[in-house]
Design brief:
The chain is an alpha/beta fold. It folds into 3 domains: about 10-135, 5'-nuclease (Rossmann fold, 3-Layer(aba) Sandwich); about 150-200, no CATH class; about 200-230, no CATH class. It contains 8 helices and 8 strands; from the N terminus they run αβαβααβααβαββββα. Strands 3-2-1-4 form a 4-stranded parallel sheet. The protein has a 4-stranded antiparallel sheet with strand order 6-5-7-8, with no helix packed on it. The longest helix is centred in the middle third of the chain and has 16 residues, at about 90-105. It is globular and about 60 Å long. The two termini are about 20 Å apart. Keywords: Hydrolase, Metal-binding, Nuclease. InterPro entries: NOB1 (IPR039907), NOB1_Zf-like_sf (IPR036283), NOB1_Zn-bd (IPR014881), Ribonuclease_PIN (IPR033411).
């Protein structure tokens, strides 16, 4: 990933780019600097309105629709889940495609230091979650992007977790929220939204029955169903 400032600073030859939906919607792709764009099918499917579709068709560079391999999707999905990043299925496709092309490309990933060189690969996205995920794989070198970490916190007893949980292991309540943290170790601080209001997250099984605690057969069935949905890439990932 490279920042807009680095992108528009100018380089000697056009680049190849993985492009997120937002750049088409806002119609702000620097077309003179792009030789070829790559998008997953899910990005193409999000280009629905007439003006955006016309902009897509009028792009002066070649656009290759290429969905990433399932192995890369799984790798990205696992990485963002461990860091509690909330990415849509399309976001995961964009990151997975960038990772796949980066691995298969003999040239190194673009940074502000080598942005003027030929044959480089970049990712154009305005989504902070996508940037955060790219950084997990060493593909984000935007100096203006502020890195964030997330942990899960129980709203009832304030216990903190790095792993994904639905019910607090300390008090057993279904009061888990995601919080932003800065610093490390003893210097770690939790950042709270100014107008945050806790909203209970009610878990239900396929029959619509509420799940009141973990460690039950009903809860295990819920997790199995969620895993199937995630494999089908139809929901947000936590």
């Amino acid at each position: 990933f490279i920042s807009d400032r680095a992108l528009w600073a100018g380089w000697k030859k056009p680049m190849r780019a993985v492009v997120d939906t937002g750049y088409f919607v806002d119609r702000c792709i620097p077309q003179e600097d792009i030789a070829e764009a790559f998008i997953p099918q899910s990005v193409r499917d999000e280009i629905r309105d007439r003006l955006t579709d016309e902009y897509y068709g009028a792009c002066c560079f070649k656009i290759t629709v290429q969905s990433p391999a399932e192995s890369y999707i799984s790798e990205v999905r696992e990485a963002v889940s461990c860091k509690h990043l909330r990415l849509s299925a399309t976001d995961i496709d964009v990151v997975a495609l960038a990772l796949e092309l980066s691995d298969s490309d003999s040239s190194q990933w673009t940074t502000p230091d080598n942005v003027g060189e030929a044959g480089r690969l970049c990712c154009l996205t305005k989504d902070n979650g996508v940037k955060q995920a790219l950084r997990l794989f060493g593909l984000c070198s935007d100096p203006e992007f502020t890195d964030r970490r997330f942990r899960l916190r129980c709203f009832s007893c304030f216990a903190l977790y790095d792993e994904e949980v639905d019910f607090c292991k300390e008090c057993g309540h279904n009061t888990i929220t995601r919080v932003t943290v800065v610093g490390e170790g003893g210097d770690e601080r939790i950042l709270f939204s100014k107008n945050f209001r806790f909203r209970p997250r009610i878990l239900k099984n396929e029959r619509g029955e509420a799940i009141s605690s973990g460690g039950t057969r009903r809860y295990e069935q819920y997790k199995e169903r969620l895993a199937r949905q995630r494999k089908g890439r139809g929901e947000l990932f936590w």
